[in-house]
Write a structure and sequence with these properties.
Elements (H helix, E strand, L loop, with lengths): L3 E3 L2 E4 L8 E8 L3 E9 L8 H16 L2 E4 L2 H9 L10
């Protein structure tokens, strides 16, 4: 399953406008992004797709030296269960 890059999001699907799964973020300032939405289509649930998308946005934040504010409940939960993500969690 290929994770693609769109405008302020990472997604799975053929088209960035009509995704099968996505994690969306909003840049805020020069050093932070707000993860505000994660969506996984019914047919992809239970396969680790949401986790993979959040992991991808974590990698992006590390590459770009950004901190993440996880407002999306799913992303917030991923930060709670993965202590290794704490390096990019905005305090």
């Amino acid at each position: 399953m290929e994770i693609k890059t769109g405008e302020n999001k990472f997604y799975i699907g053929e088209d960035a406008a009509d995704t099968d799964a996505e994690v969306h973020y909003v840049p805020t300032g020069l050093t932070r992004i707000i993860v505000d939405h994660t969506h996984v289509a019914e047919n992809l649930r239970g396969q680790g797709v949401g986790e993979a998308l959040v992991k991808r946005v974590i990698e992006y934040a590390r590459e770009e030296k950004l901190m993440i504010v996880p407002l999306c409940p799913f992303a917030k939960k991923q930060f709670q269960v993965h202590p290794e993500y704490q390096d990019v969690l905005a305090k």
